[in-house]
Amino acid sequence: MRRLALWVTTSLAMCAGPAFAGDQPVVVELFTSQGCSSCPPADALLQELGQEADVIPLALHVDYWDYIGWKDSFAQPKFTARQKGYAEAAGRNSVYTPQMVVGGTHDVVGTRPKDVRSIIDAHRGKDSPVTMDVSRKDGMLMITAETETPVGPAVIYLVRYEPGHAVKIHRGENAGHKIDYSHIVTDWDVVGRWAGTGAFAEDVPIEGEAPAVVMVQEDGYGAVLAAARLR
Hints:
Pfam families: DUF1223. Keywords: Signal. By secondary structure, this protein is mainly β. The protein has a single domain, classed as Glutaredoxin (3-Layer(aba) Sandwich). 15% of the residues lie in helices and 43% in strands. The protein contains three helices and 13 strands, in the order ββαβαβββαβββββββ.
């Protein structure tokens, strides 16, 4: 496990369709890096999780290990910022790879498959007051979400990812290895903000054939309230 210190301000496979309480998929975010020698087992585990219909795995490649000799070709600063956001929300002053965040609320070292699966199992079947419907037509993504129970402010994310790609690593800690990566996030964008009462509806332009995930998450890096995937 590789850890990096940071300064923190302490003030702090599903098809698209209705997402009903009790059948919510479990979103698993893996923070990883091509330059991290501890990460390949977690990358492989994420690929395995992709075979489970009720799990949405997403690999966010961070850029803070680029300095050690290999620049991660999938890394983006905003993925590092998201991981730091989780750390700040949890009152922590460091981040590490490989880290998995399950359902937005529980984190675990990604090389501990028993712990990862135990946390995923705990999230399976959890009721959510939020129902969501996602459909796609003529280059537009139609998103609706609603609740009868106020859930507080929430953020609506649109995530695009590449299903898989093999990378030959020439330098750094993984030099000489060819590693298979899966569910590689390429875009993570805010497409709406919702007060968390009544209904939310938004039509969002969408291009290309890459898989898409729509996610409703409590503002401030809280729980994932609903998620759906288009492949």
